[in-house]
Amino acid sequence: MSDKKTLVLSAFLLCASVTSVWTFVEELDDSLLDTREENDVWLIKFYAPWCSFCKQLDPVWHQIGSELRSSGSHVNVGKCDATASLVLAKEFKVRGYPAILMWKKDVKYNYLGARTKEGIIEFVDRVSGPLIRPLTSMELFQHALSRHDVVFVYVGASSPLKGVYSAAAQDLIISTFFFSASRDVLPKTVTLSSLPAVVVFKDGTYYSYNEVSDGELKAWINRERFLNYMKVDSYTLYAMGESGKLVLLAVLDDTQQSLRYKSLIQEVAQNYKDIYSRNIYFGFMEGNQYINGLIMGELSLPAIVMLNLSTDSYFLPLRPVDTERHLLDFVDGVLDGSVQSQGGNTITQQIRRLIYESKATLLARFGSEDDEDDGKESWCHRKIPNKKSD
Ligand SMILES: *[C@@H]1O[C@H](CO)[C@@H](O)[C@H](O)[C@H]1NC(C)=O
To answer: Within this chain, do residues 237 and 326 fall inside the same structural domain, yes or no?
Structure first.
């Protein structure tokens, strides 16, 4: 056989094996709008043929399809070329690729997390199940605590607050689980000043929602849905922007000093939780890729940096940080305004662009210039992520 023939044959075999591999994932088009049954639940990836981020997701999508199928899930997995099925894409308000959505009853849920199998399957589990999961025994409560880092629980009988909690859950189920329980299911050590209550269990402790000091329930949940101290990636950092809290980060390389910074931040997060947890998230991030976009320069590593994501401004310590005391001085300096902020709104685009360039995340907003073919380039450089669009 000539080389050319061999090539053609192997290309054919490759195609054949690829198609057989996709049987767990249905190729969808506009007709879904007519054929879908009311109780069907769909997980759909909208893609564009030219989009490399979409191609990267293909193997993960197949794994998700096969895993959901083999676990007996009722969730159907599909993919849809959004550039060909315009009606369906419009129905789902697809503005960027890949867009990952779930469709349950009349509601579409947008996935905004890391494009990993684990992340997406957890999302499917959350969204396809009950909006609020009753924890009917102490065992179930403990089980929830062991499985999830952050656990929101409505405690008490039905009330107007429960309605507000349900409404918040409808919007935020894409980000976190919602539970309910009666008082006697919670440990005796948990003290609640009144019932009903909404409580978040995290960081080895719990916080109750206080309508007077915490503002709207949904905003409070959005603010409290991360651990006090955690490893932060670009997706998390972006999502933390909505919390309104400052973020204190150790930005790491592989030096000894890095570990020192990381443990200093962890110590302060742990030991001064009561003082700072309302205003500050703590964490560490590997590499300065994202942060460099923020400061528009090269942050020398390792580093300690405080970010104000509402304005995209940042703060750097004025003096070397060697002890917990130094770090506390820096934190207090930021809070009392004696440490000057740098950066600010004018660099919003740069940060967001940078987050994109590092293949981070999210939806790209597509403007009218999108018909052009250099999708990947314009996706990276011209589109502005907009996770609030729905
Ligand atoms: C962070 O930005 C917000 C929004 O402008 C501002 O209200 C807040 O005071 C800033 N926080 C600090 C510590 O500078």
So the answer is: yes
